[in-house]
Amino acid sequence: MYLAKRILMLLLVIVASCNPPKEVSTQPEKKAVKNVIFMVGDGMGLTQATAGLVANDFKLNLERVQYVGLSKTFSSDALITDSAAGATAFSIGEKSYNGAIGVMPDSTSRETILETAGAKGLATGLVVVCTITHATPGSFYAHQPSRNMHEEIASDMIDSPLNYFVGGGRKYFATRKDSSSILPALEEKGFSFVESLEAFKSSASEKIGYFIADGEPAPVAEGRGPILSDAVEAMLPKLASDPEGFFLVVEGSQIDWGGHSNDSDYITSEMIDFDNAIGKVLDFAAKDGNTLVVITADHETGGYSLTESEDPWKFEPKFTTGHHTATMVPVYAFGAGSEAFAGIYHNTEIYHKMMKAYGWK
Ligand SMILES: [Zn+2]
């Protein structure tokens, strides 16, 4: 048997080496991805996902992903990033300083992937459960030297190609410090503002904004409701009706805030809420076939760990800090082109991998 196998192998090697080389093609032909859905669990380290898994009867939609990688989250000026530098790494593919919103370390603007998508005729959307001017969503449509410049970040939406958004922060648009409103300027650019998800769904406008709060939306445990997954579900058909494709950013914004307040129940309830949105997105992508889903975090928050408790199937939460940590965070990918996300790489690579998936690099 062994000898027969050896002879067979030898024959195969000879046959292979006798074959003339096929026409040289440097790149295997690959179909570009049509849609990318980028999901950020702010502060969602591996522990946050594990805690959510345990709290949700040992199951998460997140488990349906096909490839997992690790992202090195450092910013340009610190081992420990903030959400602005973290999101800017995703949106422009460059490491910048903590606090930077869509700008380089020297404060100059770079086109974000959302802006590129818009310029190429794709539909774009943002769904968050913080203010829409917050560091993560802001870094995709705005260019400002500081994350604290909420009104300036809001104003940048006027010239943004953004089609649809759902999030908090109405006050930065409608009742500004000088008592002005930029809603008319946005309406002039085609925006319709709605007061409910029903109105959002029935609007035929190509640009729709829905403010779910004047400032920050409430935690899900305090009555926010399933707005994150409902908004994703309402927005997906609108985005998918664009024949060119779309780019959507969805953020589980408050997982981070649970970490900052060292509140394990806050973390797990927000994690499960985010996971429900992940479920809607994965259902869509599985059916569509041309959609890439990337789910990651900007950083871990809280130095959260799950230690032994009296009940062998429960954990005692422990925290080492009220701030972010420098630990690498997982990158989860599903659907068309998802294999590119295996491995260990800088957070900036996530931008480059998404651009490549669209065939833009
Ligand atoms: Zn934070």
TrEMBL record:
Keywords: Hydrolase, Magnesium, Metal-binding, Phosphoprotein, Signal, Zinc. Gene3D superfamilies: Alkaline Phosphatase, subunit A (3.40.720.10). It comes from the Bacteria. Residues 1-18 form the signal peptide. PROSITE patterns: ALKALINE_PHOSPHATASE, PROKAR_LIPOPROTEIN. Its cofactor is Mg(2+); Zn(2+). Pfam families: Alk_phosphatase (PF00245). CDD domains: ALP (cd16012). PANTHER family: ALKALINE PHOSPHATASE (PTHR11596). Belongs to the alkaline phosphatase family. This is Alkaline phosphatase. It comes from Imperialibacter roseus. The lineage of its organism: Bacteria, Pseudomonadati, Bacteroidota, Cytophagia, Cytophagales.
